[in-house]
């Protein structure tokens, strides 16, 4: 570091620390960088710091809601993701929505927003969730509850692993219209497509964290080590998706039904219907898989863990689910869960518990833009052309200036306060997305938020109604690993017990 400085709005200039002191502090905090940044942001008068590391791009990190609103909305045009970001992800994501700026982004956003708001997609998602939960997720937990292998007479399950497999199957079925079967007990190893995504995402996360981009760029040019592996894994993904596009087109040509062949509602098929070029479709669906895969499983992993720590909240969530189930007791339509999207919208306690989980453990821990031109943020921080500007969800969730003195506590009250009482809260629980940018905010806000909440609620209801999960190591507070999307270090190993007698799910 040349300097770490905390920014001030009143013209006092940033506070600088001596070069050596800063380097030492960085070294000392290398295993707890997120918390260290959070502490520095909390100590800054405007919750903004400037990191000026020797040989690296000047970086403004902010947890200030006015700055975040300015970056994500007020001066949106000046804060694209930028080439340094799109370079890192470009080999995998190509020109998919997640990885482009300007006109290319705008055109995709329009198309994709339309698709995401379509009733057909919501119906498909609910059908996929039901099938995946009933056929795979619940039987996997049932099997664990049946096997007296672990402590207390129940088998140990890594919930993080189970939830990641589940999420990959769901997002593949919704995006590609195929079921990779990650949770299928008959498949001993992860399907090739899932492992290719895993490996590629891991290598790309390391690219993003590399102190000097030139190193991975040289390795890529020479096809060495991890970069060679990445190239091979991306090839597997690209070929699999292209094969699907071609076979789907053939199928469409052969099927001649009354709808003109439009028999599938997955995103890939719908994009074929819209007449997009094969490579455009490929890049778009890869972006959806990346965006929709590990985010929900990360949030759910922390959610289940937090409930084991907060039994009163667990009881409140269960009461709400049971009350909703009672309303459906006489339904003949009950196939599996019996809940529909309307029910999920009414579940305020569950919504609050999920929102509160993501406040403390956001699936995307930070997000960076690159300034197209010089600017001054609302708190007075100067931004130079090309500077990296990072808003920091993890730190914002823990800022007392935003959440009050009990910011560190897991408490649903902040979401269930009378001001937010309405029979159906909106997806952010009524809190400004610039104070709580877990799904980003402004024109580029997450397109899958509704879908994500539906999925998380579906899984929470299905699992909690039937099973009691308890961590194998009750005393452990797991570490938060921010990677491309956040993980729980070491997974979430739990024992599974049935709450009710075994019956057909
Ligand atoms: C708890 C779950 C989720 C969280 C916390 C989340 C969060 C985010 C965040 C922070 C961004 C902005 C990232 C960036 O621009 O670099 C984003 C973008 C996006 N998300 Fe989500 N997401 C979730 C689930 C989903 C799901 C299930 C989908 C569905 C496929 C999805 C689709 C997208 C898309 C397409 C974008 C790009 C939007 C654009 O650039 O215009 N997300 N999400």
UniProtKB/TrEMBL annotation:
Top-level taxon: Eukaryota
Keyword terms of this UniProt record: Heme, Iron, Metal-binding, Oxidoreductase, Signal
Sites where the protein binds heme: 446
Pfam family name, one: p450
Gene3D superfamilies: Cytochrome P450
GO molecular function: heme binding; iron ion binding; monooxygenase activity; oxidoreductase activity, acting on paired donors, with incorporation or reduction of molecular oxygen
Entry annotated with the keyword Signal: yes
Record InterPro entries: Cyt_P450 (IPR001128), Cyt_P450_E_grp-IV (IPR002403), Cyt_P450_sf (IPR036396)
UniProt cofactor(s): heme
Family: Belongs to the cytochrome P450 family.
Name of this protein: Cytochrome P450
Organism: Brachypodium distachyon
């Amino acid at each position: 570091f040349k300097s770490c400085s905390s920014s001030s709005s009143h013209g006092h200039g940033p506070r600088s620390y001596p070069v050596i002191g800063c380097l030492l502090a960085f070294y000392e905090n290398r295993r707890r960088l997120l918390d260290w940044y959070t502490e520095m942001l909390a100590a800054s008068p405007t919750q903004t710091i400037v990191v000026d590391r020797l040989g690296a791009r000047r970086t403004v990190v902010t947890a200030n809601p006015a700055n975040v609103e300015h970056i994500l909305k007020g001066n949106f045009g000046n804060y694209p993701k930028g080439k340094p970001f799109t370079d890192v992800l470009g080999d995998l994501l190509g020109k998919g929505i997640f990885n482009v700026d300007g006109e290319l982004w705008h055109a995709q956003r329009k198309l994709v927003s339309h698709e995401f708001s379509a009733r057909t997609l919501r119906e498909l998602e609910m059908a996929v969730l039901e099938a995946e939960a009933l056929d795979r997720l619940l039987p996997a937990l049932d099997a664990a509850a049946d096997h007296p292998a672990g402590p207390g007479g129940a088998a140990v399950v890594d919930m993080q692993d189970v939830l990641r497999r589940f999420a990959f199957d769901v997002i593949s079925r919704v995006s590609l219209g195929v079921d990779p079967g990650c949770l299928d007990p008959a498949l001993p190893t992860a399907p090739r497509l899932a492992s290719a995504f895993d490996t590629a995402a891991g290598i790309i996360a390391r690219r993003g964290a590399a102190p000097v981009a030139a190193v991975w760029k040289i390795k890529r040019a020479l096809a060495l080590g991890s970069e060679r592996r990445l190239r091979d894994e991306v090839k597997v993904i690209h070929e699999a998706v292209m094969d699907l596009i071609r076979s789907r087109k053939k199928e469409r040509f052969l099927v001649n039904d009354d709808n003109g062949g439009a028999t599938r509602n997955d995103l890939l098929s719908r994009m074929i219907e819209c007449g997009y070029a094969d490579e455009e479709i490929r890049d778009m669906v890869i972006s959806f898989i990346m965006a929709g895969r590990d985010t929900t499983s990360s949030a759910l992993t922390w959610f289940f863990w937090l409930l084991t720590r907060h039994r009163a909240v667990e009881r409140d969530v269960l009461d709400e689910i049971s009350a909703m189930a009672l309303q459906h007791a006489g339904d003949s339509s009950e196939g599996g869960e019996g809940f529909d999207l309307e029910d999920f919208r009414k579940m305020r306690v569950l919504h609050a518990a999920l929102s509160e989980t993501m406040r403390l453990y956001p699936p995307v821990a930070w997000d960076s833009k690159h300034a197209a031109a010089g600017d001054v943020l609302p708190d007075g921080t100067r931004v130079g052309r090309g500077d990296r500007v990072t808003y920091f969800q993890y730190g914002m969730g823990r800022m007392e200036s935003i959440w009050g003195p009990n910011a560190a506590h897991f408490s649903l009250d902040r979401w269930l306060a009378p001001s937010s009482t309405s029979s159906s809260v909106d997806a952010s629980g009524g809190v400004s997305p610039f104070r709580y940018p877990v799904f980003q905010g402004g024109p580029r806000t997450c397109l899958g938020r509704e879908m994500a909440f539906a999925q998380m609620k579906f899984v929470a209801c299905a699992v909690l109604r039937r099973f009691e999960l308890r961590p194998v190591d009750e005393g452990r507070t797991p570490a938060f690993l921010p990677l491309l999307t956040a993980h729980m270090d070491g997974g979430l190993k739990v024992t599974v017990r049935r709450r009710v007698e075994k019956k057909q799910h």
